[in-house]
Write a structure and sequence with these properties.
Dihydrofolate Reductase, subunit A; 4-stranded antiparallel sheet; 5 helices; binds NADP nicotinamide-adenine-dinucleotide phosphate
């Protein structure tokens, strides 16, 4: 993940991942400057203390919709975290705003809710699936994608699969959209 982040201009998570994981989201020094860490949140119900708020590690941007809750805005401003109001709190307007800042290679390192929204809005060109030789069952085994609104196999978009390759003790499997520009 550190190497993958180091090839990106920005790494995006949703508010759910910040609340659940308190991630650091840096490349651990593999890239200078570190990728921009981006949180997309509608409610801005974000923890008062989080590793993302430490701007010495890497820059952080919190993006939200046009009318964020005033109290939450005040909390973020007190923390000194940069905010970005989007015309809508959604993946496509976020990517447009990031592109205007020069962030063109962007990693969605979010949970299932935002990942599904990004795919629904055609904001994903490549999927990197890491398959680990571990068995999980029951409630903790969440799926990596939330509702995609697909009810028939004919609706499922075909991806081009690159050959899986070993990654430590795991396997990395890259899936690309058919018309992905080379490079
Ligand atoms: N295995 C992995 O690689 C990986 C990576 C990341 C996370 N996770 C796991 O994922 C779980 C969290 O799942 P999650 O789905 O809550 O995380 P998420 O997708 O990162 O965050 C969901 C949140 O994104 C925000 N959001 C803003 N605009 C949105 C939009 N248009 N559509 C959807 N969401 C939008 C909302 O935040 P607000 O509620 O703040 O408004 C929403 O609750 C945790 O258990 C975490 O460990 C796993």
């Amino acid at each position: 993940m550190h190497a993958l982040r180091s090839r990106c201009d920005a790494v995006i998570v949703g508010g759910g991942t910040v609340r659940a994981d308190d991630p650091l989201l840096t490349s651990r020094g593999r890239r200078d400057p570190e990728p921009l860490r981006v949180v997309l949140s509608r409610r801005l119900d974000l923890p008062a203390q989080a590793r993302l708020w430490d701007q010495a590690a890497a820059p952080t941007l919190v993006a939200h919709g046009p009318e964020p809750p005033a109290e939450a805005v005040a909390r973020l401003e007190a923390l000194g975290v940069e905010r970005l109001a989007l015309p809508a709190c959604a993946p496509a307007p976020l990517l447009e705003a990031l592109a205007r800042r020069g962030c063109n290679r962007v990693l969605w390192e979010c949970g299932p809710e935002l990942a599904a929204a990004a795919i629904r809005e055609n904001c994903v060109q490549e999927v990197a699936a890491v398959i680990a030789p571990k068995l999980l069952g029951g409630l903790p085994a969440r799926t990596p994608l939330a509702e995609l609104g697909l009810t028939a196999m004919e609706q499922v978009r075909p991806w081009i699969a690159l050959p899986p390759r070993p990654l430590g003790g795991d396997w990395l499997w890259r899936l690309q959209i058919p018309d992905l520009p080379s490079g």
